[in-house]
Amino acid sequence: MNAPTTTAPAAVLAVVGAGPRATGVLERVAANASELWDGRPLHIHLIDPHPPGPGRVWRHEQSPLLRMNSMAEDVTMFTDESSVIEGPVRPGPTLAEWAAQFSGGEVRFAPYAEPADPDVLAELRGLEGSDFATRRAQSAYLDWVFRRTLAELPSHVTVEWHPTTATAVTGPPDGPQQVHLSDRATPLRADMVLLTQGHLDAVPGAGHLELSRFARRHGRFHLPPAYSSDVDLSGVRPGEHVILRGFGLAFVDLMVLLTEGRGGTYRSEADGSLTYMPSGREPVLYVGSRRGVPYHSKTRYQLQGPRPPLPRHFGPAAVDALLAEGRPLDLRHDVWPLMAKEIGFAHYHELFHAHPERTTLPWRDFLAAYDRLAWYSDEMTALVAVAVPDPADRLDFEALDRPLDGLAFPASDAFQEHLRDYIAQDVARREDPAHSADLGAFLALLSVYGQLPRLVASGRLTARSVADGLDGWWHGFFSFLASGPPGFRLRELLALSRAGIVRFIGAELRVGTDEDSGAFTASSPTVPGHTVTATALIEAYLPGASLGRTEDPLLRGLHGAGALSEEVVSDPTHTHRSGLLTVTTDGASHVVDPTLGGPHPRRIALGAPTNVRGVAAFARPRTNAPAFRQNDAVARALLKTLDAAVGGEAPASRPPSGSVGRGR
């Protein structure tokens, strides 16, 4: 490594987007700098109208009623002993561990600063590991992680925050880039640009635009897909009948904002149930979706047995074997059986170790047979039937995936009772450690997701399989099982249902319009012949990826200029346009620029808009999180590339080392 020199020109990195993904990369820059950076000045421009650390999604300025869907002890921004990375591991506290210092104990985590919001401080002081924190509490944690990262940067690395929007990036592949900002005429000069904008809004598609036009013609309310914490719901009138299309986390947020957010309260009953006390300002919510049921409740317990050793059946060796076959792969036919077997292994590992009284074979004997049998085989079915007598302890993906298939109810009221019973059973199971095998399956789901990017990057999955299997069925199934709300939210849903504020429509939801009455309509084969009419329609799900319709001006401009490309997977039978930004799959995540015929050497992109799927910005501890692996690889690539590309004069002025200034 070269000795530090004061005459070397400064390198400049521009980071567009200042949320947790950007913070994660900066943390890895700090971790890797001693090895890969020689002490010359490095100046980092951080560009985001929202505060660095939390960014837009986790900013403090949102409803205090909105919460995370992970327990506080399951949220971390730091690498740990499970992380398979090239750079150094630098452990740090989970949200729960960080919050514990505010309850009167020892100050453990510098730089220490109590949150300015007294409500957030009070929450942190009482936060338990098994609690589902508010998003404002997570905002405070992410703010601290960002400040800690700044403190760990070497003195010659400086950071400057520009609280504005990046509107464009220009520049040749072999020279400095110009990052244009909405509030200044002169662009920023940078040797490298890192795009970490996170989840993006999109202009509504043709179908949603037609529904909005219908709503305007008849004086009705229609809300296209949007981020629920940002939407204006004032147009929804008290008592108005509203159809909500979607039963996932976006629905849960909307449910909260339209009920408790309008002054309603819950009363706890002696039997543990809740009773909703309306304010009189709530609408009536009719909800349905493809499955017709809410996402499964999150578990609220720890493993009762030893942690399953993952991966076992779907790890790097299994992916290697699939790729070695040298033929197109179908996700459901070729890959899913291995994924299912991996999830089943973790499920039964926990069942046999934590609840052996509910099994009939020694684990060693069961595992020997399980390892040699295919997941979808009569022999596997027979093995599980003998070894696990209670069907409630067996893993049945088909029953989990479509719980309303084959069911039809003669009247809506009968379906309301059925679904209330289904939800109550789900909440009870996910909060009862006797069913901790479900947590084993959940951990395997995370492991499986972490193995998929390499398979996708190989290009071996058929186009139809990527479209229908990966981006369609698998993404929805994973979210349904692993990304559900806390149990207390589903208990609130039950209370709202009993109060008549929420009504369930059913599965395979069909939404239409009636020009004569000016009403929206909804129906489902779950209750044949029953049609709901309403004067408002809310699309209760997030905007889909779409470079063609993105509201991000920088990406929209690059896409319009042909300087980046949408992922297109094509084969002789099908073409799939995913709407995602194509980046390289070598770990460095360079933007693929069609005008260059390959990767742009000075532009990198990470996160939700890219075709590296399923990589969350923060993670559950000790899961070898894909995001941390990706952050480390990108940080190392940035430092190496900046070292080679540095040139020109240093910026005229920079804020003090390790601090954040408001650049203009």
In short:
The chain is α/β, with parallel strands linked by helices and 664 residues long. It contains 17 helices and 22 strands.
Report on this structure.
- The chain starts with 10 loop residues before the first strand and ends with a strand.
- The strands form six sheets. A seven-stranded mixed beta sheet has the order 20-21-7-1-2-3-22, with helices on one face. Strands 8-17-9-12-13 form a five-stranded parallel beta sheet.
- It has three domains: 298 residues, FAD/NAD(P)-binding domain, CATH 3.50.50.60; 135 residues, FAD/NAD(P)-binding domain (3-Layer(bba) Sandwich); 137 residues, no CATH class.
- Helix 1 crosses helix 17 and helix 8 packs antiparallel against helix 13.
- The radius of gyration is 26 Å and the shape is globular.
- The protein has 17 helices and 22 strands.
- Helices cover 35% and strands 16% of the residues.
- It has 664 residues and is of the alpha/beta class.
- Strand 20 and strand 21 form a beta hairpin.
The proportion of strand residues reads 15-25%
The rough form would be described as globular
CATH class of the largest domain: Alpha Beta
Multimeric status of the protein? single chain
Distance between the termini: 35 Å
The CATH superfamily of the largest domain is FAD/NAD(P)-binding domain
CATH architecture of the largest domain: 3-Layer(bba) Sandwich
In percent, how helical is the residue content? 25-40%
What's the topology here?
Blueprint lengths: L10 E6 L3 H17 L5 E6 L47 H5 L18 H9 L8 H18 L4 E6 L3 E5 L6 E5 L6 E3 L1 E4 L10 H13 L2 E3 L17 E5 L3 H10 L6 E4 L5 E4 L6 E5 L27 H9 L6 H24 L8 H10 L5 H10 L9 H5 L10 H19 L6 H21 L5 H20 L4 H12 L3 E5 L3 E5 L4 E5 L7 E4 L1 E4 L13 H8 L5 E6 L2 E8 L8 E4 L4 E8 L20 H20 L14 E3 L2
Parallel strand pairs: 1-2, 1-7, 2-3, 3-22, 7-21, 8-17, 9-12, 9-17, 12-13
Antiparallel strand pairs: 4-5, 5-6, 10-11, 14-15, 15-16, 18-19, 20-21
Helix pairs in contact: 1-4, 1-17, 8-13, 12-15, 13-14
